[in-house]
Amino acid sequence: MTTKRNEPDVQSSVDEQDSSTDHDTKDSTVEQVPSSDSVTFTLSLPVAVRETPEHEAAVAIDDVAVTAHHVDPAAMATTTVAFAPESVVTIPPESVPEAAVIPELPPADRPTTRRGRQRTEVRTTPETATMLTAERLINQGKKNRQPAPEGFLQELVYAATFHLVNLGDSYRVRERKALEARVTKTFVGGTRFVPVLTRKGGVGKTTITALLGMALADTREDRIIAIDANPDRGTLAERIDKQTRATVRDVVMRAESLHTFSEFQTVVSRDETRLDVLASDTDPHVSEAFDEDDYNVVADMAERFYSVAITDCGTGIVHSVMRATLQRADSIVIVSGGSVDEARLASETLTWLESNGHEDLVKNAVVAINTATQGTNLVKLEEIEAHFKSRVREIVRVPYDPSLATGSVVHYRDLNKLTKAAATELAAVVMDGLPAVRVN
């Protein structure tokens, strides 16, 4: 360190230094370099030496200088360090840090999905089909989630709250679903036969048969067939788009060769609702030969492939076909018009059935009142309904529809809402009267 001062100051500094030399330690020395302009001090400070702790010295390896050209490659392969027993240092437990917990990795034979979840273990033995149960396969969290509601206000609230608020279906939707649940009733033990009959022609019996069959086929998932058993040249097949010219006579003649449903489909026509229609004989001379035995052959074929068979009966109530039809009937539908004579003849049909041992069918019967007939606006339909309610189980009123009044092909999708609602109600009340389980 060098400092420039004036001469008087230098002399006083030297005097002070001389007076303090007696008190300095032996490690510090002061040298004065004679100069007229500067004074230089040289300080010798003690060097700080780091002492190695005992636990480090115990495991330390002595540095040994090695000459490069004397290095043995074999000796460099391994290095052996010997520890003396007295050099082992015991570290107190409190100074040892806690070991980190590392999660166990999944085994190599259990792959994970892209979301990181482990897949279900694969059994070593093949599984049977019975092990694929709903409890095992269906996600219970998604299964218990309520479906989206139906109805304008309900759907609006459900969408506005990002599916958090579900008000449920509207009242009309709940009524419709309840009606459809009645139509989709499950049956066990064979085909259910439902004849549609009346003693008077022109009241819409064939139209009611088509509506009932279409409503059932449109709602249910199983197979529905409508059989035209009218011996007087029925027109049921003309209510749908015909796809074949086969009739009940072809079924009787080919009964032994119709083994599968695919083969039976060649003799029936199917409409847009999946209703199969079997036409009656078109030749009036041949139709007289369609008797009780022939109907039983057709009914046996229908019983092999269908859940519900609706029979469009003719006006000949004493015909032998009617006897076979009623023997297989599980419930009946009586069609009445809106006029006085039509209602009276429908009531007389019930009386004939009661007189011929079919009281149970009458009590379980359903009366369909076709309001499209002439004179409906002039009579009191409430009085007609009150009369039939005293004799049968249910009454259903079918409204007027221009699509039905033409007497041509019926397109179920084009019917008015009230007409389709009445057809669904008719199907529901008919299904209510059919036994769920039949014991043969």
TrEMBL record:
One of the Pfam families matching this protein, by short name: CbiA
GO biological process: negative regulation of cell division
An MF annotation (GO) of this entry: ATP hydrolysis activity
Region (Disordered): 1-38, 104-124
Domain CobQ/CobB/MinD/ParA nucleotide binding residues, every copy: 198-339
InterPro entries, per the entry: CobQ/CobB/MinD/ParA_Nub-bd_dom, P-loop_NTPase, ParA/MinD_ATPase
Biased composition (Basic and acidic residues): 20-29
Keywords: Cell projection, Cilium, Flagellum
Family matches, as Gene3D superfamilies: P-loop containing nucleotide triphosphate hydrolases
GO cellular component terms listed in the entry, alphabetical order: cytoplasmic side of plasma membrane; cytosol
PANTHER family per UniProt: ESX-1 SECRETION-ASSOCIATED PROTEIN ESPI (PTHR43384:SF14), SEPTUM SITE-DETERMINING PROTEIN MIND HOMOLOG, CHLOROPLASTIC-RELATED (PTHR43384)
Protein name per the record: MinD-like ATPase involved in chromosome partitioning or flagellar assembly
